[in-house]
Amino acid sequence: MANLNETASAQRIHISFFGLRNAGKSSVVNAVTSQQLSVVSEVKGTTTDPVKKAMELLPLGPVVIIDTPGIDDEGELGALRVKKAKEILAKTDVAVLVTDVTRGMTDTDRELISSFEDRNIPYIIAFNKCDLACAPETAVENSVAVSAKTGEGINDLKLRIASLGKQTEKEKYIIADLTDDGDTVILVIPIDASAPKGRIILPQQQVLRELLDFHRNIICCQPEELPSVIEGLKNKPRLTVTDSQAFPFVAKVTPSEIKLTSFSILFARYKGSLEELVRGAKALSELKDGDRVLISEGCTHHRQCEDIGTVKMPRMISEYSHADLKFDFTSGGDYPDNLSEYKINVHCGGCMLNEREMQNRIRLSLRNSVPIVNYGVAIAQMNGILKRSLEPFPEILKILD
Questions:
Q1: Of 139, 296, 321, 388, which one has the fewest beta carbons inside 10 Å?
Q2: CA-to-CA distance for 332 and 71, rounded, in angstroms?
Q3: C-alpha span between 207 and 66 (Å, rounded)
Q4: Better-scored residue on pLDDT, 77 or 35
Q5: If we measure between CA atoms, which residue out of 248, 237, 249, 233 comes closest to residue 383?
Q6: Predicted confidence (pLDDT) per residue in 182-234, tens digit
Q7: Residue 400 in contact with residue 386, Cβ under 8 Å?
Q8: Which residue among 110, 145, 168 closes a domain?
Q9: Is 119 strand, coil or helix?
Q10: What distance in Å separates the CA atoms of residue 133 and residue 13, rounded to the nearest whole number?
């Protein structure tokens, strides 16, 4: 896990290594990372759970390296390990298929390649153990011959991975493109019992950092200070961004000529999903007695008495819909394959998920014909301020007309 001085995991390119047991995945991972990230053994199935490492991979930059269990694991536990390995596909930006050159490509290897292609995941095949044999299959497109034992081909593999990773990078902004040079932005950051001691939460950190990078004028305050902050400004701010939980109060005290949105809505757009999440908001008003609601979170934070996911959101949704609802909860990497039993999927802002995983979750929800909305959009909808909170995004506003 990255510490507070490192690039957040969700902003790193996720590079995952897949393959059969004893193909040498872990050995190749160790060679690529130049450290003993994974335990290596002649015994099949040594890697029992995905192993992750945040690091710098030159010339690409900040990445997360993921070593997965063998995709051909057997038995009851083996099936669970295979399931864990396949779940990693949802967050993979670049895939590396490690295959044993002495055994050649297998049907399972080809199935993995089909999975990469179905998900539009760029991939490279690493034919390992090239010190033992040289097969014509090394001429396969997107492949490189390597030896984790001697180091042959490892640098070439790293360069090929970096090249694929560069192709997945897009010029995207959280907030900078909504502002201009010299603009002032107010960030409303509640400090309550759930706030981490001595720091602000990740979405707030990332918005603040991007505004600093672009030399914007920034004022941070708690909700109760907002009226005096606005009153004391000589020039009106371009934008006010608030924590979603303070939306009702902030909307009330912020003059209508100042655009308003939330951190959660900014991140919905940053993950490339704001349009679908706004479309899903309508389903909140259509809930009826007995309907099932899924509340999904991308992290496993310590839950307190007024936790937003398990306490506040269910309460707000029940009061808004006037319905007796049944709520289910998921957190972290747990995410159901079958969502069809739910009337709506209410998701967190996804700050701990990379863009690919968040979009995969949205696609899975829509594939099951289940509307999906995130906390910020849902709270704005339930407080009658969704249109106002979308004023910085005129193209998205058209959806509500």
A1: 139
A2: 22
A3: 27
A4: 35
A5: 248
A6: 999 999 999 876 666 788 988 999 999 999 999 999 999 999 999 999 999 99
A7: yes
A8: 168
A9: coil
A10: 32
| Single-letter amino acid, residue 79 | A
**Residue located via tokens 């603040």:** 208
Relative to beta strand 61-67, strand 51-57 is: antiparallel
| Domain encompassing residue 118 | 9-168
Give the end-to-end CA distance of the chain in Å, rounded to a whole number: 43
Partners of 241 in the β-ladder: 187, 261
At residue 79, the pLDDT reads: 76
Q: Residue with structure tokens 């002649």?
A: 42
DSSP string spanning 271-335? TT-HHHHHHHGGGGGG--TT-EEEEE-SS-PPP-TT-IIIIIHHHHHHHHHTS--EEEEE-TT--
Output phi, psi for 48, to 5 deg: -100, -20
The answer to whether 345 and 370 have CB atoms below 8 angstroms apart is yes
- Which of 116, 144, 168 is the last residue in one of the domains? 168
Q: Which long-range contacts (CB under 8 A, 24 or more apart) does 202-208 make?
A: 202/8, 202/10, 202/351, 202/352, 203/263, 203/264, 203/266, 203/267, 203/349, 203/351, 204/243, 204/263, 206/8, 206/11, 206/174, 206/351, 207/174, 207/175, 207/241, 207/263, 207/266
Q: Which segment of 71-75, 162-166, 229-233, 294-298 scores lowest on mean pLDDT?
A: 71-75
Two tokens, residue 109: 């290897």
Q: Please name the residue that has the structure tokens 């289940």.
A: 370
Asked whether the CA dihedral 101, 22, 149, 144 is positive or negative, the reply is positive
Amino acid at 170: K
Rg (CA), the chain: 24
In a domain, 28, yes or no: yes
Tokens encoding 338: 């079958």
Structure letter (DSSP) for residue 90: G
4 located within any domain: no
Nearest-angstrom CA–CA distance, 349 and 296: 10
pLDDT digits (tens, 9 = 90+) for 100-130: 998 888 999 999 999 999 999 999 999 999 9
